[in-house]
Amino acid sequence: MKWLQDHEVAINLALFKRYQFYQIFNPNGSKLLNYDTYKLTNVMFIVAVTTYNIFSAMCFFTDTVDTIDSVDLLLMIFIYSIIIISLLKISVLLFNADQIWELFDLTRFDFLTSRQCRKNVGILCKYRDRSITITNLYQNYSTMVFIIWMITPLVLNTFVVVGGPNQRYHNIFNMQYPVSANIYNQYYYLFYLMEIAMGIFVLNYSMIIDNFLISLCWVIIAQYEVITTAFEKIGNDCELTTLQNEKNNNSFEAYEDLKSILMDQNKLYIKLKSFYRVVWIIVIFLIIIDSVLLIILTYSFVMICSSAESFSIFNILKISTAFFVFVIQLYLYCYLFDVLNDKKESVNFGLYCCDWTKMDLRFKKLLLLATKFNNANTLKIKSTPNKIVNLQLFSSVMTTAFNIVTVMLKTMNGKN
């Protein structure tokens, strides 16, 4: 597949090129020692991030770590969870780089080639505008949250005096390290830059991947809507309806339209299976980790609000802004997979709405076969054997998360 231009696709390709994400999957990219430069760079980045987090986690096995209160411990689990899901996302995509490159073909305006589908390309334009708006907003909001997290420790360190040799300066994520507080404070800006690198890693390898998967969901939804609309118009927009002796020509044209649209639908279904094979593990782990993160953030928020610390407002700001990032993330995944399932199932309605009653027997037989195939197609991403990823799952996750937080708070109050 050739190098795509922004105007050729129904996704926010400019965003992915700007973050050097699209270039990762280009099989014809620049080489270094017969290895793709972008892939090699990203693998080295993954190794560096993994090494850094192992170094940080070593603090739990040394006596240099300070006493960690429950909120700080929960926020450390929060940061480690984000980094783990970020590593999972980029590792899965790099491992399936060839399939991802082929999925970019799905985003082209000319992916569907049948006559009726080409007439409805305006649907893709509508979804493209929506996708670009949402992905830009999501990426910009995530970046704004990270900037808030960057500024907060600098403000706290300016106005809060370190209370002794064992108190560490505030940092972006307040990760612990196997060094003494004195050494940590002495080389504070080095650790600050390391945590900035972690934040950039999350932005590049978590949020941008979310935007990419969200964009692919929008495109698949749009393509299924194009196919459904194309089915509905079979026979209804045919110009050969005025003369009785042209009835055979009308049936022939409708049959050819039906056959070509079914070929497009099968091509889209193959891409959908490829997409699900790649992303299912990301989606399942993301739902699990997001559920845990929402519990952690909600519990930490309540704990900090009840704290007597004078500068807790800054921590409240950090936690509340991060909370909305993960609520939006979880909602978008559940919403888009819910809509995708509905659009895929509505194809049969499009088949029924075509002018099939006036067609010959050959057309009706093919229509029946297409309907049976669609009924047999139950391809969906499931979080459990009985629960599919949809808005009902989002509601269930949010309810469960807040119930768990309520139980935790009651337990804590009972001990006090």
UniProtKB/TrEMBL annotation:
This is Odorant receptor. It comes from the Eukaryota. It is found in: Cell membrane. The chain crosses the membrane at residues 40-61, 73-95, 146-166, 187-206, 278-304, 316-336, 388-409. The keyword Transmembrane helix applies. GO terms for cellular component: plasma membrane. The lineage of its organism: Eukaryota, Metazoa, Ecdysozoa, Arthropoda, Hexapoda. GO terms for molecular function: odorant binding; olfactory receptor activity. Keywords: Cell membrane, Membrane, Olfaction, Receptor, Sensory transduction, Transducer, Transmembrane, Transmembrane helix. Belongs to the insect chemoreceptor superfamily. Heteromeric odorant receptor channel (TC 1.A.69) family. GO terms for biological process: signal transduction. Coiled coil: none annotated. PANTHER family: ODORANT RECEPTOR, ODORANT RECEPTOR 19A-RELATED. InterPro entries: 7tm6_olfct_rcpt. It is a multi-pass membrane protein.
